[in-house]
Amino acid sequence: MARYVREWFDLESDLRPFYDLAKREILLQKAVRQFYGLRLIGIPNLFEAQC
């Protein structure tokens, strides 16, 4: 189960490069402040997406 959660939330990925970019992009600054740390759920395959 832990492996699935890591995959779903892409917990292995380092978000720091994105946050470094977002600091410099005025259009992203507000969203990053409001949703800092938010990770979207990834869908591993088409079958799971249909469920």
Automatic annotation (TrEMBL):
GO term, biological process aspect, one: nucleotide-excision repair
GO MF term list: damaged DNA binding; oxidized purine nucleobase lesion DNA N-glycosylase activity
Coiled coil: none
Domain 8-oxoguanine DNA glycosylase N-terminal intervals: 3-49
Keywords for the protein's UniProt record, in alphabetical order: DNA damage, DNA repair, Hydrolase
Protein name: 3-methyladenine DNA glycosylase/8-oxoguanine DNA glycosylase
Lineage of source species: Bacteria, Bacillati, Bacillota, Bacilli, Bacillales
